[in-house]
Amino acid sequence: MQSAQEVKATPPVENVDEFVGRVGNLIRNLRENIKALGVEGAVQKAAEIIPDARGRLSYIANMTEEAAERALNAVDRAQPIQDELEARSQELSERWTHWFGHPLDDDAVRSLVLDTRQFLEQVPKSTAATNQELLEITMAQDFQDLTGQVIKKLMELVVSVEHQLLDLLVDSLYPEESRDEVRARIYEQSEVPADDPEQSLLNGPQVDPTAADVVSSQDQVDDLLDELGF
């Protein structure tokens, strides 16, 4: 059995056709007005840009993730090599220090010399392997050039959409005024220079580390999460 609210929320069957007709008229009037304003092409272009921008953002995310994984994997491979070099060099240094203070017998000296020689023979191989991983980390940064080009193009697309939508609003709401005058007034109210609309794209992460509202350390992040109850 339906509740009173459900019955009240359900439109009468005889009104469905009228409702659909009114929606159809609304869409048709909107389309005709867009054609009359001469901005149908601009709206269509803006609609086509959105999926393209989504694809570009996905490309940037994938490239960045891949580069991060390459760099982290290279670090994981290089770290054990450096740890072994550090441990072996420290061990041999302590043995040589001990030998200078307490001379050893011939067998002990011979063993120390052999171990040192083996270590010195291994050092070039270890450093070469480390250099290879460092090169891999460097090569992983090539994504910046590719994604930089995509980001630049994406900014151009966003600015293009912004201009087209703004022109649509201007032509619709202020048909008797010039686009430049209305655009200048809008940018003035939004504190964005009319001759530099790209500045509207700069709203994002705080890049000034001295600003009062910047979280700059992990401790501050932890404190913030604690305050929020996480």
Automatic annotation (TrEMBL):
Region: Disordered, residue numbers: 190-216
Enzyme Commission number(s): 3.1.3.-
Annotated site location: Enhances dephosphorylation of CheY-P: 149
Compartment annotation: Cytoplasm
Primary location: cytoplasm
GO biological process per UniProt: archaeal or bacterial-type flagellum-dependent cell motility; chemotaxis; regulation of chemotaxis
A GO term for molecular function: phosphoprotein phosphatase activity
Keyword Cell membrane part of the UniProt annotation: no
Top enzyme class: hydrolase
UniProt-listed InterPro entries: Chemotax_Pase_CheZ (IPR007439), CheZ_family_phosphatases (IPR050992)
Hydrolase listed as a keyword: yes
GO cellular component terms, A-Z: bacterial-type flagellum; cytoplasm
Function: Plays an important role in bacterial chemotaxis signal transduction pathway by accelerating the dephosphorylation of phosphorylated CheY (CheY-P).
Similarity comment text for this entry: Belongs to the CheZ family.
Quaternary structure and partners: Homodimer.
Designated name of the protein: Protein phosphatase CheZ
Species of the source: Mangrovimicrobium sediminis
